[in-house]
Write a structure and sequence with these properties.
Low-confidence stretches: 1-18, 181-192, 246-252
CATH architecture: 3-Layer(aba) Sandwich
Number of strands: 7
Largest sheet: 7 strands, mixed
CATH class: Alpha Beta
CATH topology: Rossmann fold
Number of helices: 7
Number of domains: 1
Order of helices and strands: EEEHEHEHEHHEHH
Shape: globular
Pfam families: Usp
CATH superfamily: HUPs
Protein name: Universal stress protein
Strand order of the largest sheet: 1-2-5-4-3-6-7
Mean pLDDT: 75
Length: 252
């Protein structure tokens, strides 16, 4: 049986919030301490517009939130895969501070979704909004932030670049599934990221942060540690505290 696209995956880590889970708590009491700002929904009338672009925008802010000259905006491009979850978690844990703005953008690609299921799209957008609120709450100090969720149809790369120009964020964060590269590509120094990530890095006017899944990072680390060809330098420096990269006694 095919798994619904927004259903929480049982294999996900227990402490990880599924951004597209049908089980996400989108009831208003989950947004206690927050207030909704005016949103936009052009999905019903998209076909009658000149561009034919559908969009659905949700905005919410903490009741004590105030935008100042010190407010920073951080954008995260998401999709319906688990690769988006660590990317959003990363900016919430490492970048966002009190008084900042978080913008999550998802592009519904025409080629993959020629007919948009408007009900599912709105449901997914509300689930994403709820997940960001819960991630902020999980930080402990409940930072006073503003949250914007943008769902738009169109070409993925050009739409993301357009939204970067609109919001002018400090950075753009995207997730990657950790593309596999061949031995020849490794010898040539090929970066293991997808074509979209590369194009955004080259063309985006703000810094682009690529977040790889933790399991791929650990797998790569273990592979390096077990490779005998990489042990020569470690064997030289392991007993000399004055040299860099000294391993602690507890390291594998």
């Amino acid at each position: 049986m095919e798994r619904p696209p927004f259903e929480r995956r049982s294999s996900a880590k227990q402490n990880r919030l599924s951004l597209f889970s049908r089980a996400s708590n989108t009831h208003e009491h989950n947004f206690k301490g927050y207030e909704r700002i005016v949103g936009f929904d052009t999905m019903p009338d998209a076909e009658s517009t000149v561009s034919g672009t559908a969009s659905y925008t949700l905005q919410m802010k903490a009741k004590e939130y105030t935008r100042t000259k010190h407010t920073r905006t951080f954008m995260c491009a998401v999709d319906a895969t688990e690769a988006s979850e660590p990317a959003l978690e990363w900016i919430m844990e490492n970048l966002v501070d009190d008084g900042d703005e978080v913008v999550a953008v998802r592009v519904l690609d025409y080629e993959e979704e020629p007919i948009i299921d408007q009900k599912k799209a709105r449901e997914a957008a509300n689930n994403l909004l709820s997940a960001i609120v819960e991630l902020n709450r999980a930080s402990g100090d409940e930072r006073k932030i503003s949250i914007t969720v943008e769902f738009m149809s169109g070409d993925i790369k050009s739409t993301i670049l357009h939204m970067v120009r609109v919001y002018r964020p400090e950075s753009l964060t995207i997730g990657t599934r950790g593309k596999q590269v061949s031995t020849l590509e490794k010898m040539l120094g090929t970066t293991p990221i997808g074509n979209l990530s590369k194009q955004l890095i080259w063309q985006c006017p703000v810094p682009v942060i690529i977040v790889r899944p933790e399991d791929r990072i650990q797998k790569h680390l273990i592979k390096r540690l077990t490779d005998p060809r990489r042990h020569e330098y470690a064997d030289i420096v392991k007993d000399d505290p004055t040299l860099p990269m000294r391993r602690s006694s507890g390291s594998p």
